[in-house]
Each structure stands twice: as structure tokens, then as C-alpha cells.
Amino acid sequence: MEQPVVAFDNVGLRYGQGPEILHDISFALEPGSFQFLTGPSGAGKTTLLRLILLSLRPSRGLVRLFGLEASGIAGQDLTAVRRRMGVVFQDFRLLDHLTTYENVALPLRVQEREEASYRAEVMELLAWVGLGERAHALPPVLSGGEKQRAAIARALIARPELILADEPTGNVDPALARRLLRLFLELNRLGTSVLIATHDLALMDQVDARRLVLSDGQLHRYD
Amino acid sequence: MSGFRFLRRDRRPALVLSDPAASRSLLAIVAILTFLAALAAAGAEMVAASSREWRAALAREATIQLRPQAGRDIEADLARAASLARAAAGVAEARILSRADAEALLEPWLGRGLDLASLPVPRLVSLRLSADPAPDLRALERRLAAEIPGAGLDDHGAWRARLSGVANTILGAAAALMLVILAASGLAVAFATRGAMAGSRDAVDVLQLVGATDRFVARVLALRFLALAAAAAAAGAAAAALSLPLLGWIAALASGARGSEDGVLFGTVSVGLRAYLLILCVAAAVAAIAGLVSAATAKRFLRELRAG
């Protein structure tokens, strides 16, 4: 049996000496699975995604990523693990001094690939998310929806094994939200594991997928 | 060329921007420090070159000194000393200095207008030595002592040793000054790198989250500061190179009317090719230090970020 892409076992998180904001979180994301992470605003969805990204470390419990225990992942291993994940941040986190094209190409550029080897690939993906005409625009002049799509394209460009998307349809109209959801479903059909954090019930109702619900610092699973 | 990919100009936009005002300040600081370090190095080289020249000139000369002795004919002793010297190997020329010449040499110490006729002024035979065959001054000294009472041979060793000491002190001081200035350049670049990283923390964070290694981020910053420091060092070095002839002119002006006499005694301060090469080396060292310090500072900053 294949190892889960992500496995949490009784994970708890507190900041400093403060109260525990996530407790006894246990779940696993299987390879090729599709799920939503939901819950009210402030329930800790983004925090949970940061734990998966290893930009936060748990106060207790075990986190395993691609079969590796998180406490032992550092340096080059951390970079290698992150290269297997694609992330869509809620606030996009596009670099304002780089064009849409440069932002989307970033994961390939940091792998020190020659631009000639990825230029066509990036342009194709930009066209696919409807940003072909905006490739040379800087993020400050993009609309919320365009930034959203650029952030999604950046998360997909290196063909990661796991996509983490934080409110990926929060800034787009329902039609575009459906289109983006189809994009994630298509990626999932091709074998990518997908975890979408959202509180958009209408979006979740469009897909028959597992829901992980965060509430009062605890996780409830609805398969 | 494929082994030097990092040297190829990357036409893609910079991944991490640095504050333009901070960059300009760093440019000015590194240019000024390079200028000072280059001047210190070139100045020390000019002193060392003059000292070498003077010591070489002194080594090519020796003096036989005859103290007047009661009951001896000093003119005959002088002629004998000169003939012994001419017969010795390695002596190209022996010239007897007249009493007037000997008295003139005392003038700088005793002043003009003194009647030295009653004083037992030592008389001199000036020797010009050849490089081949090498002179055996100790043998000549022994023969002089055996044949002419009161004769001595001065090979200027004491002067050469003293000059060498002074020149080495100046070189040591210049080397210390240069090290301090290079350290100051390194610190300025380290502060600038930390500033740039703190100011671009979000961008650095994004780079790491999309899979950049610490080495990659550090190299991005190091190349940026290397380029900046290289431009600043080139400007500082160019200013120093242009200043050298000016310094030589000031040195000549400062020695005033006695310049030609001092030139004979101490040699002249001249700007040689080695001084310009040293300036180039200082500029290269400043740029290299900037690149290394920037990369090390960036790596350290990234480690601190990870440690939280």
C-alpha cells in the first residue's frame, strides 16, 4: 500500500506559552486524493496548511510528509519536500517587481533551469488559466481574479505531487470559481493530491469529495 | 564556459530587490574605502620602491675613511689606499675626495663660514663597486688596516639597515591600515546584506516556499552585492590611480628647492607600474570580499530565519 502524502498523528500547536490552538489533529491525505479543508474563519485552516508546508512546526504529535517524519526534515531535505508541493496562498504572495510570467516561472527558476527549457511551458499554462495576454503585466495592475489565477499557475507549473490551495476561489466570480475548480479536478484526475481550504459551501457542493472540518481547534472528517 | 554558468549574465529580472537609497550609500562607502586602501597600498609600494632603489645605490658604493695621524703624510696614505682599492677585486673606481670636498660634506652639520683648517678632518676615498666580480670588502678592509694606520672602510651597512627598518615599518603600517579598511568594507557589505534581506523578507520567504535552497538565495544576494561592490571598487580604484601622479607632484613640491639634493640622498618618489597593479589587486580584493561576506551573511540570516 502506498504511503500517505501527508499524515498527522495527534498534532497539537501552540504559539509560545499561549493556549493550544490546534489539538489532537489526526488525518492522512492519500496519493491522488481530493479533499476540502473547511471551517469558520479563524478556525486554523491556514495554520494547518502552514504545518503541512513546514513553515510552522507542531508543538506535539507527529507529522509525516511523503513518508518522512517532519522533525527530521531540514536543509536540503526541506527544499526537496517543498518542491513536491505546490501552494496557492490566500494573499497570493506574488512578487510585485516580477511580471506574471516571471512569477509563474519562479518554481522552475529557483531550480536553476535555463529559461529556454521552460518558456513555452509557462506561456502554455498562462494561456490555460486565461492570462496569456497578461504575461508581461506586473501584479499591482492585475485584478484580484487575475492574481488568483497567476498564484494557481505558479503552484502548478512544477507539476507537484500535492497541491495546497488556501481559499483559491475567494476573489473570483462564481463562473471563474467553477472553472478553477475544474482545473483542480483535472489535475487530481492526472494523479495530483489536492487539498483546498475554503469556507465556500457552494464550491464544495459541486464536488463529491471528502471534507475535513476544523472547528474549535479540532478536526472532524466527513468522508 | 559551461562550468562557469554563474558568471553568465542573467537577463531575467532580479529576484530580490534592494533599497536603491541603501545601494547608493553602500556604493559610496565601498568606493571611498577602496580609494583609501588603494592609496595606502600604492603609497607603501612607492616608499618600498624608493627604499629598494636607495639601498641598491648604497650597496654599489663604499667609502675608505682616513683619520689624520701624527707623523704620517695623509696625501700619501690616500694615494696608497686608492691604489690598494683599485687593485682589489670588484672595485670599479676609486676617487680621492679633496680636503675641500671633505669639508663641504661637514657643512650641513657645522654650518658655513667655519675655519676647519685647524681640525683633523677625516679624508675620504669614494669607491664605486661592480656587481661582477663581487667585491670582497672584508679582504680590502684587512689590507687597509695592515698597511695604513687610521684607515677604515664603510660599506654603508648601518644606513641600509636603518633605511630598511624605516621602510618595513611603513609597509607594516600600510598593510595594517589596508586590513582595517578591507574589514570595514566587509562589515559595510554585511550590514547592507542584512538590511536587504530584512527588507525583502517576504520575497525571500516566497522563494523558499517555492523550493529555493538557502544556497540559491544566498547566491542571488551575493551576486547582487558582488556587482555593486565591483562597480564601487572600480570607481575607488580609478580615483586612486588618478590621484597617484598628483601625490608624486605634491611630494616633489613639498621637497621644494632642495628636491634635487634630497633626490640624490634619498632617491625620488616615482609612480611605478607595480603601484597601479596593487591598486587593481585591492579593487579585486574588495569585490571578492563583498561577494564572500554577502553570501556568508545571507546564509547566516536564512539559518536564523529557520531557527525562528
TrEMBL record, chain A:
Annotated Gene3D superfamilies: P-loop containing nucleotide triphosphate hydrolases
Keywords: ATP-binding, Cell cycle, Cell division, Cell membrane, Membrane, Nucleotide-binding
Main location: membrane
Cellular component aspect of the GO annotation: plasma membrane
Highest taxon, organism lineage: Bacteria
Subunit and partners: Homodimer. Forms a membrane-associated complex with FtsX.
NCBIfam families in UniProt: FtsE
Family affiliation: Belongs to the ABC transporter superfamily.
Purpose of the protein: Part of the ABC transporter FtsEX involved in cellular division. Important for assembly or stability of the septal ring.
Name used for this protein in its record: Cell division ATP-binding protein FtsE
UniProtKB/TrEMBL annotation, chain B:
All copies of domain ABC3 transporter permease C-terminal, residue ranges: 176-303
Signal sequence bounds: none
Keyword Disulfide bond recorded: no
Pfam families: FtsX
Subcellular location: Cell membrane
GO biological process: cell division
One GO cellular component term noted in the UniProt record for this chain: membrane
Membrane topology (UniProt): Multi-pass membrane protein
Transmembrane segments: 170-192, 225-255, 275-296
Predominant place of localization: membrane
Entry keywords, A to Z: Cell membrane, Membrane, Transmembrane, Transmembrane helix
Protein name per UniProt: ABC transporter permease
